[in-house]
Amino acid sequence: MKYFNIITLLAVTFIIFCMRTAGKIVKGKYFDRFFLIIFENTDYVTAVNDPYLSDLTNRQDGILLSNFFAVEHPSEPNYIAQIYGSTLGILDDADYNVTGKNLVDLLEDKGISWKAYMENYPGNCYQYSFGPSNDSYARKHNPFISMVNIHDDPVRCAKIVNASQLDMDISTNSVPQFAYYTPNQDNDAHDTNLTFAMTWFKGWFEPKLQDPAFTTNTLFFITFDESESKGEPNQIFSSLLGTPVQPNVNHNDDTYYTHFSIAKTIEENWDLHDLGRNDTTATPFTKFLIS
Ligand SMILES: *[C@@H]1O[C@H](CO)[C@@H](O)[C@H](O)[C@H]1NC(C)=O
Ligand SMILES: *[C@@H]1O[C@H](CO)[C@@H](O)[C@H](O)[C@H]1NC(C)=O
Ligand SMILES: *[C@@H]1O[C@H](CO)[C@@H](O)[C@H](O)[C@H]1NC(C)=O
Ligand SMILES: *[C@@H]1O[C@H](CO)[C@@H](O)[C@H](O)[C@H]1NC(C)=O
Ligand SMILES: *[C@@H]1O[C@H](CO)[C@@H](O)[C@H](O)[C@H]1NC(C)=O
């Protein structure tokens, strides 16, 4: 009996240890992982005619969101809106320290893992506007670093990583359930053009799409920050790809969506609380997802 109890105790301890270290998956209503990739400054009409983007939306598990709008000009307020549910009235690309809860708080409340992959990010909770030699990393395209409750918390801030970490995370099957990927200012079209960016994107994306550690139950969300044309209507290209998408739906969802729809979609998928801002009234892009 005594030995039996010791063995039981050891077994229970071992199981608890495994549960804590194995990075448990929180099942979602539509998807188990959300992977966002964001590009820059392109009008809807330009992007929708890009050969690679139209190839992606026309795949069996692809869908174009043909009525999707950015919320402001220039870049930064759009990035802030995605994870904060409000632009806070920001109308420039300056450095801000934003207080109050954001999407990361909602995710962590439910134990959902997250990471922000930033190309050319120097790491170590780097605070400056551009990379050390003004290279292609830009803080204005990294909304996470503007959140005070992320940059003041070393554990959280360590989840903003250099994008080169992604290949390691795929190889160890540890891509988080919420992943946000910002290419550098060449690869995202900011300092180049869409042809350059999509050549990069295709070379980056296609090999990864062959790997289940990247794709399993993953909803890929491909978007832009704002239209190139300043002012209204600020319509941008956005699309969905992955097994959570219903096949054969003519590859077009013309529901009105905005950057605020991103937080709403994630909240609905994992039954999270909300931010109490413009996310609450936004429409989630779940119409053609399999539940
Ligand atoms: C978001 O919501 C607030 C108040 O609910 C509002 O003042 C603001 O104009 C909305 N829009 C943006 C783009 O943040
Ligand atoms: C934001 O906070 C950091 C300290 O965490 C400080 O160094 C920086 O000056 C602040 N930036 C602004 C724009 O207030
Ligand atoms: C950061 O990522 C870039 C590519 O995104 C890579 O060239 C660079 O070596 C990485 N730097 C560090 C410190 O990991
Ligand atoms: C980077 O750019 C900023 C703003 O244009 C400038 O103030 C700074 O001196 C530059 N730093 C380097 C290392 O070139
Ligand atoms: C885009 O940039 C490339 C150089 O990277 C250039 O060869 C090409 O002509 C540009 N395309 C347009 C439409 O400006």
Estimated helix fraction:
25-40%
Helix vs. strand class: alpha/beta
| Gyration radius, rounded | 20 Å
Ligand catalogue: 2-acetamido-2-deoxy-beta-D-glucopyranose
Supply the CATH class: Alpha Beta
Quaternary assembly:
single chain
The CATH architecture is 3-Layer(aba) Sandwich
Q: How far do the termini sit from each other? A: 48 Å
Keywords: Hydrolase
Protein name: Phosphoesterase family-domain-containing protein
GO molecular function: hydrolase activity, acting on ester bonds
Organism: Rhizophagus irregularis (strain DAOM 197198w) (Glomus intraradices)
What do you see in this structure?
Strands 1, 2, 3, 4, 5, 6, 7, 8 and 9 form a nine-stranded mixed sheet that branches. Residues 15-21 have low confidence and may be disordered. The longest helix is centred in the N-terminal third of the chain and has 20 residues, at 2-21. This protein is an alpha/beta fold. It contains eleven helices and nine strands. The chain has one domain (27-280): Alkaline Phosphatase, subunit A (3-Layer(aba) Sandwich), CATH 3.40.720. α4 runs parallel beside α11. The termini are far apart. The chain has helices at residues 2-21, 44-48, 51-57, 75-84, 103-109, 148-151, 154-157, 165-171, 194-208, 212-215, 260-270; strands at 33-39, 62-69, 114-118, 160-162, 178-182, 218-224, 235-241, 252-253, 257-258. The structure holds 2-acetamido-2-deoxy-beta-D-glucopyranose (NAG) (5 copies). One 2-acetamido-2-deoxy-beta-D-glucopyranose binds at residues 192-193, 195-196.
